[in-house]
Design goal:
By secondary structure, this protein is mainly α. The protein has one domain. Helix content is 80%, strand content 0%. The protein contains five helices and no strands. It is globular and about 50 Å long. The termini are far apart.
């Protein structure tokens, strides 16, 4: 695959996962009786576009030059969380940015096993994350 096409594919995948990672915490926060302050659709799409470009560029550079160093993807994920935290500086706490990262990580950790046909691994990750969300939701409701 041509490297420019690979970058675009990574960008689209990162944009879709980040978009889902913004929508799903909003739904979750609505279920636990909290509110996640979001901007308009266009502004959120622009923020997701910039943050996903950072993530996709890092993934592209890592797979191109250092294929064995995928652990280094934690740094672009943190940069994406910082971009969201800066964009929602007055509205979001640091926990909201953490939840965004958690949802995006789970989307990636479920998506990759599904692509490779490892359905049990994907189900176990979803169940573990559901338990995590239940505990966090119970704690948040008690406050």
């Amino acid at each position: 695959m041509h490297t420019a096409i690979q970058l675009v594919v990574f960008w689209v995948a990162a944009f879709l996962s980040l978009g889902m990672a913004v929508v799903l915490p909003n739904i979750y926060y609505g279920l636990i009786g909290n509110d996640l302050e979001l901007r308009s659709l266009g502004k959120e799409a622009a923020i997701a576009g910039v943050a996903s470009l950072v993530e996709a560029s890092a993934l592209w550079l890592i797979t191109l030059f250092v294929p064995g160093a995928l652990r280094a993807m934690i740094f672009p994920a943190i940069v994406a969380a910082l971009i969201y935290k800066i964009a929602h500086f007055e509205d979001w706490s640091r926990y909201d940015a953490f939840m965004l990262l958690a949802f995006q990580a789970v989307i990636a950790f479920v998506g990759v096993p599904l692509i490779y046909g490892r359905f049990l691994a994907a189900i176990l990750i979803l169940v573990g994350f559901a338990v995590f969300l239940a505990v966090i939701g119970n704690f948040a409701r008690s406050l």
